[in-house]
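cache lookup: miss for this entity combination. No prior model stored, computing from scratch. Input as submitted by user K.M.:
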Amino acid sequence: MKKAEDFSEWYNEIVERASLTDKRYPVKGMNVWTPYGWKIMRAIDACIREELDATGHDEVCFPLLIPEDQFAKEKEHIKGFDEEVFWVTHAGLTPLDVKLLLRPTSETAMYPIFSLWVRSHADLPMKTYQIVNTFRYETKQTRAFIRVREIHFFESHTCHVDYEDAERQVRQDYEMLSRLARKWCLPYLLLKRTEWDKFPGAVYTVGIDTVLPHGKTLQLGSIHQYRDNFSKPYDIKYEGNDGEHRHVHQTTFGMSERLIGAIVAIHGDDKGLVLPPDVASIQVVVVPVLAKGATDTVSKSARELTSELESAGIRVHIDERDIRPGAKYYDWELKGVPLRLEIGMKDIEKGVVTLVRRHCTEKTLVDRKGIADAIRGVLEEIAADLLADASAAMNANTVTVDSLEDLPDKLIKTGWCGSEECGHRIEDLSERDMIGTPIADEGYKGMCVVCGKPTTTPVFIAKAM
Amino acid sequence: MKKAEDFSEWYNEIVERASLTDKRYPVKGMNVWTPYGWKIMRAIDACIREELDATGHDEVCFPLLIPEDQFAKEKEHIKGFDEEVFWVTHAGLTPLDVKLLLRPTSETAMYPIFSLWVRSHADLPMKTYQIVNTFRYETKQTRAFIRVREIHFFESHTCHVDYEDAERQVRQDYEMLSRLARKWCLPYLLLKRTEWDKFPGAVYTVGIDTVLPHGKTLQLGSIHQYRDNFSKPYDIKYEGNDGEHRHVHQTTFGMSERLIGAIVAIHGDDKGLVLPPDVASIQVVVVPVLAKGATDTVSKSARELTSELESAGIRVHIDERDIRPGAKYYDWELKGVPLRLEIGMKDIEKGVVTLVRRHCTEKTLVDRKGIADAIRGVLEEIAADLLADASAAMNANTVTVDSLEDLPDKLIKTGWCGSEECGHRIEDLSERDMIGTPIADEGYKGMCVVCGKPTTTPVFIAKAM
C-alpha cells in the first residue's frame, strides 16, 4: 500500500506491520500495546514527565472510577460526556447503590479532593499531573492511536489564586508544548476553539492541531482555561493573605497516544515508520556486514562499536541474526530506526563506519574515531530535518481562501466576522468543521467569507480526523 | 498512636500523616496516590522493570476491559472471581451486547492474543509483563495499600515449550524476587498453597508471605505454575521442531502495592515511616544548621554538599525552609528519609558533616572530603541493617508448635500429614488459615498435629491480613 495513493489504508497497515499495536483484541477500539509500541509510548511519556517535573508539577494518580453524583456537579461538563462514558453498574452479582463511570478525563475525580488539599494561598499554585488510561465510547469508526475507546494520555491540572495566574500557566503550557513538539518533530497550530466547540466547562479551549498528509487535521491535545467554573461547584477555595476565602482558578493541559498516530502518519513512508530519535526505543542499529574469512574481525569490531555507543548513552542495538544484511535493512526500515550503521571489512580497513539515515536513505561515511559525538550530532540533524520536512508539508497543506467554493482537501484559512451565525454558515457551506482562530494576533486583514464584514480574525476550517 | 500498642490504628494513621495516600476519595477502597506515595510506588516499579527487563521479559499493556465470554473460558478461573469483579454494562445510555469486566488479573485478556502471537518453538519462551491497575470488589474491611479495590500491580506472564521449562521460569522468579526483596529490605517466605487455596486455574501456587509486627501474615504476591490449564481453553499452541502442534506451558508472577504496606508496617516506628534507600524518593536530606553571623557560609556549604551528592547520583534534598531545625527533623523523620545530614559552623570548621540514620537515630561524623562515597556506603549499611532487623523480627514472630492449644499471635509452624481432612481440621482447631508448606525440603521431622502420623512436611498457619 502506497502512502500517497491511499493514506488511510497505508496507515492502518503500517501500524500493524511495524508491530506498533495489535488490533485483534475482542473489544472494538481497545487495542493491545505490543512491546514495540509500548516502548515508544513510554519514551513519549518520559519526555512529558521530564517537562512537567521541571516546571514544578507533581505526579499523582487518582482512581479510575468516578461516582455518578460527583460527575454531575458541573452541569455543562456532564452534558458534554453523558453519551460517551462507560458505566459500572454491578460489583460481583450486586447492583451498586451509586453507579460508577470510567473516567473520560479526571476533573470530577480530582476536584472533590483538591477542595481538601487547597487551604491557603501558600498552597498555590498547585500543579499536578497524571499519566493514565481513560475511556470514551466512540461511536465513529475507530483507528489505532487516533480514535480508540481506551486512551493512554496525560492530563495536568493546576489551581491558581486568580485568573491572571491561571493565564500565566496557559502560557507556560505553550512553552512546554513547544519544547516537547520539537523533540517529537511535530509541527502544530494553537487554535482557540469556537464557543460551540470548547470543552464542556471551560471558559476557553485551545486545541493543539496538526495536519496529516491527506489534508485532514488531527487534534493532538488541548489546553483549557476553567476560571472558577469547576472550583465553584467543587468548592475549591483558599484563604488569602487578607483572610478572605476565594475560589481558585484552574487550567488543564493534556495530550494522548494520538501523538504516536501523528508521528506515524507524518513521518512514515512506504517502507515503514520513521521515528524521531527522541522517541525511538532503538536510535541506532548496527549491522555487521560479514565477509568470508573476516567474520570474527567484523563481529568483534561491530560489538565494540555497539558498546562504545551504549556507554555514550545512545540507544543502540546490534543485529547479529544469521540472515542477509538486506533482510535486516528491510526490518529496521519498517521499524523506523532513525540511523543504521553498517560496518564491513572495507570500513574497518579505512577506519570508517557507513551511516544510513532512515528518512532520506542518505549514505555517508564517518570516522570510527570519536564516533559517539558524531552520531549524537547526526541524530540531532535527523530530528531537525524531520521537523523541517513536516513543517514544510503542513504549510503546503494549508491554503488561504476568500471563497468557500471548490475547496481543496487541505487546511483552509479564511476570514470570519466572529458571529456564531456566520460561523455555522461557514461550516455548512464548506462541509468542514471550524477548528478555531489563532491565539496570537497575526495582523490578518480580510473579510468574513460569509457576510463580507471586514475582520482581523482569520479562522481555520478543516475536515478533522 | 504507638505501634506496639495498637499496630492496626498506628498503620492507618501513619500512612495518612506521612502523606502516602489520601483515603477521602468518595469510593470505598479506592484511594488517591499522593505525590509522595506515587514516587515511592514508582521507585518500586523501577526496581521491577529493571529486573524483568534484564531477564528478557517484554513490557506490554493490555486493555483493562475483558468481555464476559473470554473470561468464562477457563472454568475454575471464572468460579474463583465471579463474585469479586466490577461489571461494565452500559456505554452512554446503551446497554452493551456483551458485558465487560474490569480485569482482576489479566490471564483472560492476554491469552486470546497469546494464541495469535505464539506460532512456533522459535517464539518460546515468550516472556511478558505489565504494570497496571486492577480491580477487585473486596467485601472485607479495606486498608490502604493492603486491601483496596483498585490495585496497582505488576504481572508477568510467560509461555514455554514444556512443563520443565515453565519450572525453570518459576525458579528464575524466585531469584528475581530474592534480589528485589533485598532492595526493599523485606524478609519473606515462599509457601506452596494448599490445593483448596491455590489460584483458580493453577496447578500450584506459591505465595510470597511476610509477617507483620502484630503476628499476622501479609501476602505480597504469588507465583503460579499453570501447566497447560489455560493454553488448552485459549488454544495457545506452537509447532515443534518435529512439526507437531503442542499447547504451551505457562507461569505468572505478580506483586502489588502491598509492598508499600509491608514496608510501612515492618520498618515504620512511632515517629513515622522508615524507607529503604532503594525505595526512598529522597534518600538524603541536608539540613543547614544556621548560626547568627554565619548564615551565608553555612548555606553555601550546605548547597555545595547537596550538589556534590546529586552529581554522584544520590537522591538528595536540601531543606532551606525558614523554620527551626527541630521542626525539619520531625518532618523528615515522619517521611522516612533514610539519612539526614546536618551541617553547621562547627562541622565546617572541623571539615566534617553530621550523619543521622533514620532507623536507629545514630549520630556519626564523616569527613567532608570524599563524602559521596561514604554516603553510598552508609546507605548500603542502612539497607543491610533494615533487612537484618526485619528478618530477626520475623523469626521472633514465628514459632514451631506440636499442639494447637493456646497459640500465640504469631506465625505458627507445625506438622501436617498432607491430607485435606487434617488440613481443614488444623484450620478449624487453630482458628487460622493454613498458608502453605515450604517449597524446599527443610529436613523437617515431626508428626501431623491432628492425626499424629509421622511427616517430613511442616505447614505454616497464621491469621492473614
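stored under new cache key. Residues 415 and 448 of chain A are 4 Å apart (CA to CA).
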